[in-house]
Amino acid sequence: MEEKHNSNTRPPYGIIAVLMIGAFIAFLNNTLLNIALPSIMKDLEIGPTTVQWLTTGFMLVNGVLIPMTAFLIQKYSVRRLFLVAMTLFTIGTLICGIAHVFPILLSGRMLQASGSAIMMPLLMNVMLVSFPIEKRGAAMGIFGLILMAAPAIGPTLSGWIVENYDWRMLFHFVTPIAVIVLLIGFFLLKDKKEKVHLRLDIVSVILSSAGFGGILYGFSSAGSKGWDSLHVIIPLAVGVVSLVTFIIRQHKQTVPMLNFGVFKFPMFALSSVITMTMNMAMFSGMLLIPIYVQTIRGITPLDAGLMMLPGALVMAFMSPITGRLFDKFGGRVLAIIGLAITVVTTYFFSNLTMDITYTQLVIMNSVRMFGMSMVMMPVSTNGLNQLPTKFYPHGTAMNNTLNQVSGAIGTALLVTIMTTQSEHYAKDLAADAMQQSGDAQPTAEAAAQLQQQITMQATLEGINDAFLVATGIAAVAFILAFFIKRSKQAEEPAEEQQKFSPKLAKN
């Protein structure tokens, strides 16, 4: 496929449609699994720290492979990369569906991740190359609509399947769809690519894997093991050193595996910071609301999924609308309004009580999702719009990598705040209870009931504190949004032209 867009050339809608269906299936699979984790723990007789590897492992594989996608997109055709990605994802789904022990389930999950890691940057790159800047917002809006449909459907569908069938049915449901998408791609994708003489730098691969993998593992482990654990400190130290070395090496490479020169473009750099902070704030809702409604309020998995459904539908419905508004007004106005709504609603979530109604939770979450729908895609697209065409693979790979890293950091930070604050509140509440009871000794039943009440109240206060921190994180993104300017595609830097065009340099 040609890399430069010609305004007279019709976008390859067939290729885009096939890629979107593949990305939708991969995204749906992720949202299906979250609600099923308690059932998997019970069936396979494993604990929370073990089962969380189904999420952490997926994140790690993405963090290791996504930085390589810039190289893969430049070297191989869309058809070849899509077929490899969907094959890996389909095999992984098959393995997960027949798994009866955790190691096999985890292996299948990581195979799924290896396919998913290629899919998203590939689709984003095709979208950027296929549409001119003035039409890109609307195109990205449709892309967002399809992808946001997955989290809208996923939790509710997962809750229903888990309550009525074995959790393996989640994978049996996805497998035939993945096979059909793979066959459609095999017969319909016909794009060709001229042979490109690029060699993968193995040292860069090792440094990238150790860097991003170490950081992701360290932050992902912090929530369960604590920040003072060697399981957290050592991976983070190795990750930081490896990542710094990786960046230095990429700067010296003639053709870097992942070009950090994308951060020389101010709107891309700004959009990266805003989306990272937004990701961290967004995880507060994805992580803390299910804990609150299921653990503290005793709401069933199906009802918990239904509670999140309106918000996800709002986000999906708004995606094409915000895309068109972005084309007309740019990203700044949308981001400021959306982030203002996000900050206010996240603050409301920091004041949860035992008495707040189900309807109130649905409304608060839906309004919060409405605000976020005006931020993520417009800000990200505005940043990518400033990049020269040659930087598109590197920009999309960098965006997806930073999303993984910020997600891991956000999860670790909020879980740590919730657990440490809950422990603090539990001690204070227990001391107050002892002071009020005086010398009277409660019965065993009354003591157990009191302990349960203390645990519930302490957890609630810990969740509120975590949401308060998330409010501060969203507020940082809100301030940064005032510096957004409408992007115009920049000229390719002279030194980069020489890197990518050796013949030109010789002349």
From TrEMBL:
<feature type="transmembrane region" description="Helical">
    <location>
        <begin position="169"/>
        <end position="189"/>
    </location>
</feature>
<protein>
    <submittedName>
        <fullName>DHA2 family efflux MFS transporter permease subunit</fullName>
    </submittedName>
</protein>
<feature type="transmembrane region" description="Helical">
    <location>
        <begin position="466"/>
        <end position="484"/>
    </location>
</feature>
<feature type="transmembrane region" description="Helical">
    <location>
        <begin position="361"/>
        <end position="380"/>
    </location>
</feature>
<dbReference type="InterPro" id="IPR020846">
    <property type="entry name" value="MFS_dom"/>
</dbReference>
<feature type="transmembrane region" description="Helical">
    <location>
        <begin position="53"/>
        <end position="74"/>
    </location>
</feature>
<comment type="similarity">
    <text>Belongs to the major facilitator superfamily. EmrB family.</text>
</comment>
<feature type="transmembrane region" description="Helical">
    <location>
        <begin position="229"/>
        <end position="248"/>
    </location>
</feature>
<feature type="transmembrane region" description="Helical">
    <location>
        <begin position="299"/>
        <end position="317"/>
    </location>
</feature>
<dbReference type="GO" id="GO:0022857">
    <property type="term" value="F:transmembrane transporter activity"/>
</dbReference>
<dbReference type="InterPro" id="IPR036259">
    <property type="entry name" value="MFS_trans_sf"/>
</dbReference>
<dbReference type="Pfam" id="PF07690">
    <property type="entry name" value="MFS_1"/>
</dbReference>
<feature type="domain" description="Major facilitator superfamily (MFS) profile">
    <location>
        <begin position="15"/>
        <end position="489"/>
    </location>
</feature>
<dbReference type="InterPro" id="IPR011701">
    <property type="entry name" value="MFS"/>
</dbReference>
<feature type="transmembrane region" description="Helical">
    <location>
        <begin position="12"/>
        <end position="33"/>
    </location>
</feature>
<feature type="transmembrane region" description="Helical">
    <location>
        <begin position="401"/>
        <end position="419"/>
    </location>
</feature>
<feature type="transmembrane region" description="Helical">
    <location>
        <begin position="329"/>
        <end position="349"/>
    </location>
</feature>
<keyword id="KW-0812">Transmembrane</keyword>
<keyword id="KW-1133">Transmembrane helix</keyword>
<feature type="transmembrane region" description="Helical">
    <location>
        <begin position="81"/>
        <end position="105"/>
    </location>
</feature>
<feature type="transmembrane region" description="Helical">
    <location>
        <begin position="111"/>
        <end position="131"/>
    </location>
</feature>
<dbReference type="GO" id="GO:0005886">
    <property type="term" value="C:plasma membrane"/>
</dbReference>
<dbReference type="InterPro" id="IPR004638">
    <property type="entry name" value="EmrB-like"/>
</dbReference>
<keyword id="KW-0813">Transport</keyword>
<keyword id="KW-0472">Membrane</keyword>
<feature type="transmembrane region" description="Helical">
    <location>
        <begin position="138"/>
        <end position="157"/>
    </location>
</feature>
<keyword id="KW-1003">Cell membrane</keyword>
<feature type="transmembrane region" description="Helical">
    <location>
        <begin position="196"/>
        <end position="217"/>
    </location>
</feature>
<feature type="transmembrane region" description="Helical">
    <location>
        <begin position="268"/>
        <end position="293"/>
    </location>
</feature>
